[in-house]
Design brief:
This protein is mainly alpha-helical. The protein contains two helices and no strands. The chain has one domain.
Length: about 60
C-alpha cells in the first residue's frame, strides 16, 4: 500500500517523524510568550482600555 503512492507515503512518514520536534519547539515558544505576557503592564493597559471604552461610537472619517 505504501508503494502505490510513494510521494504521499513519504510525506506522511516525514510528518510523523517531525511531530515530536514541532511540538517541542512550539511548546518552548509558548512558554517564552507566557513569560513575556506575565511581565506586561496590566495597569497601564487597563487605563488605555478604559479610555477607549469610554469613547462614543465609531468616528466616521
Amino acid at each position: 500500500m505504501l508503494l502505490l503512492f510513494p510521494q504521499a507515503s513519504s510525506r506522511m512518514i516525514t510528518d510523523i517523524l517531525f511531530t515530536g520536534p514541532r511540538l517541542l519547539f512550539g511548546g518552548w515558544g509558548l512558554l517564552r510568550e507566557s513569560a513575556r505576557l506575565r511581565t506586561a503592564d496590566t495597569a497601564g493597559l487597563a487605563q488605555i482600555l478604559a479610555v477607549l471604552a469610554g469613547r462614543g461610537g465609531a468616528r466616521e472619517p
